Structure formats: structure tokens, C-alpha cells
Amino acid sequence: MAQTGREHWATRFGFIMAAAGSAVGLGNIWRFPYLTGANGGGAFIVIYIGCVVLVGLSIMIAEFAVGRRTQLAAVGAYKSQSRKWTFAGVLGVLSAFFIMGFYPVVGGWAMAYIVKSFTGLLSAPDAIGDAFGAFIGDPLQPIIWMLVYMAIHIVIVGRGVSKGIELAGKILMPLLYVLLIIVAVKGFTFPGSGKGLSYLFVPDWSAVTGKTFLAALGQAFFSLSLGMGCMITYGSYINKRERLPGNALIVVSMDTSVALLAGVALFPALFAFGMKPAAGPGLVFVVVPKLFAHMGGIGVFFSAIFFISLFIAALTSSVSLLEVCVAYLMDEKKWNRKTATNATILVMVVLCILSSLSLGTISGVKLFGVGFFDFFDILTDKIFLAIGGMLLAIFVGWFNKKEDLKDELTNGGTVQFKLFELWYAVVKYVIPILIGLVAFFGIASIEQRSLMLFGLFIIAALAAVSKKL
Ligand code: TRP
Fold this sequence. Notes:
The protein has helices at about 10-25, 25-40, 40-70, 75-80, 85-100, 105-120, 130-135, 140-160, 160-190, 195-200, 210-225, 230-235, 245-270, 285-295, 295-330, 335-355, 370-400, 400-410, 420-445, 450-465. The model has no long low-confidence stretch (mean pLDDT about 90). The protein is globular and about 60 Å long. By secondary structure, it is an all-alpha fold. Bound molecules: tryptophan. Tryptophan binds near residues 27 and 99. The site of tryptophan (TRP) has 16 residues, from helix 1, helix 2, helix 11 and helix 15.
């Protein structure tokens, strides 16, 4: 099944930047801080880091190995083993579609806030919170921004792997890091900001339940772009000479440091402004403009650059999500890149319109007790990704030959992977059991139980028809 002439990343730096570009995104800067706030602060962060180290890193190594070994995107990689496994890959494609049913909406908000930085948003700091609520609930404005956001993808993904994605990642990622540091430094200058740091780094275990673990696990998968074949697909483009574990470690470290930096940047200012930690999805869109509003003219400029880099971070991530769907249609259904890209984007746009409207105009329409936006978010992050990761671990641990894995991870024995045995045991035994437990107790303690069960039902249904997919 291996294809000849598959495109590969032109350089190692380009690959790392593209993989880190996929990982670092709204998940780190928009989602991680507000989830931390909603789940009690320090304790959530400790559990999150545990999930990243124990589960995330091993799964990323596994996804890279599967991708590079098969030289196929997610679905093909599973299918080349046995058609019974096709569903696990298709589940990933479905996750990508659903994530892209709300992600571009938030990407559009980031773009809108670039412009809003210049058009007076910062001149009335006290109105910034209400302005955000009014904006996302508007029937038209956020949809227009989402459409602009999606239009950019047609250009990037349409140009192919090494040119489009690599270029975008390389130029724009480092800027984000610098900006978060500026925000963090400015945040510390406000009186009362110290409370934000203790909120982040002094765990309060009393708030921890099964839900907290599920949220942390889901966020680890989401933030690292795991559990849906994205890194399998990227792995299939990695040069045979690269060391996979080392590259995975770099990507995981970059991703986690950006998330923590975002927390450190936002929480001190949030406490100084007397806002609630559980401010929700508006957190970054309210705290950052408020903070820069205190800086006068230069603040406008900084605010704009911040949202430009947030937009770029989002872009490199959603490009990778789109690429999963496009690669599936190209590899498995033999569509050409252009048709696959356009058709995929069209479906995503429809889902995004529903998501955006669900925050205002059609907020009364509920699926399993939640609006469209939350529906796509919860279904993917709390169930599909974690189960996708579990399936991958089972696939690798129990259905791949150990020698083949060792061969792939040591580049045919030419380089060392000292922790191979540990990694193998974690993937084979620890991860499937751990995810099973977290999912079970998470579902037992969460309000949206019927939605979770619906998610499991979809997975079971896909598995049942796997051979036809
Ligand atoms: N990791 C990205 C973020 O944090 C989102 C993302 C990109 C993603 N590709 C993915 C999430 C694949 C899950 C799977 O913003």
C-alpha cells in the first residue's frame, strides 16, 4: 500500500514548526486558560501536566511511528493493517470535521479583534466584557469573519504540504512566544496580580472530581493534536532519517510551555481586574484588551499584534485539521487536492454557521442539552479524541509487531531509543486502562451524560460498519 513519491518535509526545522504549529493553537491560548479557570486552577494544571507526560508524549511517538512506517495518512494507516480498523481512522476524520465545526468561529473572533483593537475597543475598558458577549452573539459579524478565516485555508492547503503549511509555520510561530512574554510581563505590573499566580500554582484538591480528569485528558489530546490521526498524517511526511521520540519531545515541550505561558500571562491580570477565574470562553478576549487598554496608544498596537499572532496560531492548527480530511479524501477516495479541499471547507462552513448562531440567534436550539458550538466541542474533546487515542494505543500495542515498532523508532537500528521498553509498556497497558478509567468516571460525573453516550454510540456504529468505510 505504501505510495511512492509522497511529499516530505523539506527540512527538519520545517517539520518541527509545522507539527508545533498544529499543536500550538487556540487550544493553548484560548482554551487552556479558561478550562484552568473553570476547573479550579492549580490542581487542574498538575493533572493536565500528568496527562501530557504520561499519555500525550507516548501517543505522539506512537502516531509518528505509525505514520512514517505506513507512509499513509490516518485512515490508510489503520486500513493497511486490517479493514476492521478502518473505523478508528474514520473516527479521526470525523473528529477533525467536528473540531472544524467550531474552531474557525473562534479563529474568526481573533481576526475580528485585530481590527477591533484599532477601532475603539480599548478606549472603554469597562465595556470590553459586554462588547465580547454582544459580538459573539451577533447574527452576522462573527460569521463574516469566520468566512474570511476559512477562505485563507483554501490558499494554504491548496498549495500542498511543504510549501504552504511549512512556510506559514516557520514565519509566524516565534512571534507568538514573544508576545505572550510581553503580556505576562505587563500583567505582573498590576497590583493584586500575585493572587493569579498562586491560583495557578498552588493546587486546591478539593475541587477535583472525575470531570476534572476527563477535562484535563481531553485538553491534553486537543492541545497536542492527538487522538485523531493528525500526527499520523504528519508522521507520514517525516523524513526517514529523523528520530521520532526526540521530535515528539520537542513538540510536546513547545506546546506545553505555550499553554503555561498563556496561563501566566492571563491570570495575574485577571485577578488584578477583579474578574472571575471561571470567566469562560471570553477570557482571553476580555483580559488581553483590558490589559492593553491600560497602556495608552502603544496598547492598541500590542493588542493588535497579540490577536494577529493568536490568529496565526489558530491558522496553523486548523490547517492541520483540514489536512486530515483532505488527505483522507485524496488517499482513500482518490479525489484531487482542489476538489477535496473545497468540498471539505464547504461542509465545515455550514457547521461553523450553526455554531456561531448557537451563541445568539438560535441559542434555544439544543442537541442533548447543549447548543451546536458546545455540541461539537464536547463531543470531540471529551469523547472522540480520548477514545481515538485509546484505540491508537491498542492498535499499536496489540496489533503491531513489537520489532517493527522498534525498527521504526530506532530508524532501523541506526539510532537509540533507550526508553523503548517503557514506552511500549505504557502504550500497551497503561494508556488503554487509564483512558478507560478516566472516561468511565468522567462520564459518570458530567452533566452532559446523554451526549457522551451518544458519542460512544457513534464510535460503536462506525466500528460495526468498519469494513465498508
Ligand atoms: N492542537 C490544536 C490547538 O491546540 C488544535 C488541533 C489541531 C487539533 N489539530 C488537531 C486538535 C488535531 C485535535 C486533533 O489549538
